[in-house]
Design a protein that fits this description.
The protein has about 160 residues and is of the alpha+beta class. The chain is built from four helices and four strands, in the order E-E-H-H-H-E-E-H. The protein starts with 8 loop residues before the first strand and ends in a 10-residue tail after the last helix.
């Protein structure tokens, strides 16, 4: 750890009216920088401005994008009871879909037919050549689908 100081200098600036600290790691090229939370951070789980912005709605994203979760939207609007009710409905929808897949697989197996495993929409499974681990590799067609607003291959998960 002592040798690390040769390459990284940690700076800590304390803001007068806050207990928040900014830590900046300076190296040959800046990799990460910590930021202060927003003024009303206590209302937003002490998230930074960036963390809050990461879940902002964006036009044209896939219908399966987690920012489209209706329970999450309601929660962020402070409608806790409605959000919880919608969350329960979504979870039951997921359970029903799983039961349907399991039933279809069981019927196929009992009929001597193969049942194809789940295939991700935007990724494909490959064996990583060095480690031999199974990894999911981006297929590359998401951006074309987004550009054309063609989400026909997305499942209805919400």
């Amino acid at each position: 750890m002592r040798g690390l100081n040769k390459y990284v200098q940690m700076l800590s600036n304390e803001i007068n009216d806050s207990s928040n600290k900014i830590f900046i790691a300076i190296t040959k090229s800046m990799v990460i920088r910590g930021y202060l939370v927003c003024p009303d951070c206590d209302k937003y789980y002490n998230f930074t401005v960036l963390a809050c912005q990461m879940n902002e709605q964006e036009d044209g994203v896939a219908p399966t994008d987690s920012r489209n979760r209706p329970d999450q939207r309601l929660m962020e609007e402070g409608k806790w009871d409605e959000a919880n009710a919608v969350k329960i409905e979504l979870e039951e929808k997921q359970r029903a879909a799983r039961r349907q897949r399991e039933s279809s697989a069981e019927q196929a197996t009992s009929g001597g037919q193969p049942y194809p495993p789940y295939e991700p929409v935007w990724f494909k499974k490959e064996t990583e050549p060095i480690t031999g681990n199974i990894v999911h590799v981006f297929k590359g067609d998401y951006w074309t689908c987004k550009e054309n607003a063609d989400w026909s291959r997305c499942p209805n998960i919400f």
